[in-house]
């Protein structure tokens, strides 16, 4: 029996356009901006819709040849195995021979369905550009198994949480330490603060778990 080998692309959806951010987010400093870039995605983006968008983009870029590499227009060559609108994270499965086509298609995809605003009517267009929201699809890791992609997604989610909390704690501790140093400057005392360094990040894009 021939074993069909696939590739799993872990990706996240980013929103770098500050004009789509809430006004309070723009004026709240770098921490809020970091959260806004990784903002949630509308529930209108379903796994089926995302897979369809990828297939259409591959067809537009590479024509019938690209669609054939995915297994044909009616085949399930591209499948969204995981999609979380809350974290704007997805895992795409595609044939191993065509994962670069899918990757390039994701690079050129620039819009997702916009978040429905409270009180907006059905089909009502948003002031910031209609029913679509500009975004960037960033491929984080290419793996040969679903398990490796899931582990990488969990690791990156934990790192983002630690990074955001670190910014909060650094701001609070900085104010407290500066106040303590000013209060003890008369007596000649000095406060020494040590920080915890984050472990270096592995920027490798490919896993060697499956040839």
TrEMBL record:
One of its GO terms (biological process) is maturation of 5.8S rRNA. Transmembrane segments: none annotated. It is found in: Nucleus. It catalyses: Endonucleolytic cleavage of RNA, removing 5'-extranucleotides from tRNA precursor. Keywords: Hydrolase, Nucleus, tRNA processing. GO terms for cellular component: multimeric ribonuclease P complex; nucleolus; ribonuclease MRP complex. Its EC number is 3.1.26.5. It is an enzyme of class 3 (hydrolase). InterPro entries: Pop5/Rpp14/Rnp2-like, Rnp2-like_sf. Pfam families: RNase_P_Rpp14. It comes from the Eukaryota. The keyword tRNA processing applies. GO terms for molecular function: ribonuclease P activity; ribonuclease P RNA binding. SUPFAM superfamilies: Rnp2-like. The keyword Metal-binding does not apply. Component of ribonuclease P, a protein complex that generates mature tRNA molecules by cleaving their 5'-ends. Also a component of RNase MRP, which cleaves pre-rRNA sequences. Belongs to the eukaryotic/archaeal RNase P protein component 2 family. This is Ribonuclease P/MRP protein subunit POP5. It comes from Penicillium daleae.
């Amino acid at each position: 029996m021939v074993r069909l080998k696939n590739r799993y692309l872990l990706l996240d959806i980013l929103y770098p356009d500050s004009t789509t951010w809430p006004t309070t987010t723009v004026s709240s400093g770098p921490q809020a901006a970091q959260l806004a870039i990784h903002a949630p995605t509308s529930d209108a983006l379903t796994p089926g819709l995302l897979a369809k968008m990828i297939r259409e983009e591959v067809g537009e870029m590479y024509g019938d040849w690209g669609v054939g590499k995915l297994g044909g227009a009616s085949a399930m060559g591209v499948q969204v195995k995981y999609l979380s609108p809350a974290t704007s994270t997805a895992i795409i499965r595609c044939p191993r021979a065509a994962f670069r086509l899918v990757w390039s298609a994701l690079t050129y995809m620039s819009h997702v369905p916009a978040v429905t605003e409270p009180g907006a009517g059905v089909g009502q267009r948003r002031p910031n550009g209609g029913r679509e929201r500009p975004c960037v699809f960033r491929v984080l890791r290419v793996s040969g198994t679903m398990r490796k992609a899931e582990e990488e997604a969990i690791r990156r989610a934990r790192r983002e949480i630690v990074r955001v909390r670190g910014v909060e704690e650094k701001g609070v501790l900085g104010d407290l330490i500066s106040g303590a140093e000013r209060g003890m400057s008369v007596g000649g005392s000095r406060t020494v603060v040590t920080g915890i360094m984050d472990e270096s990040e592995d920027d490798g894009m490919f896993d060697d778990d499956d040839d």
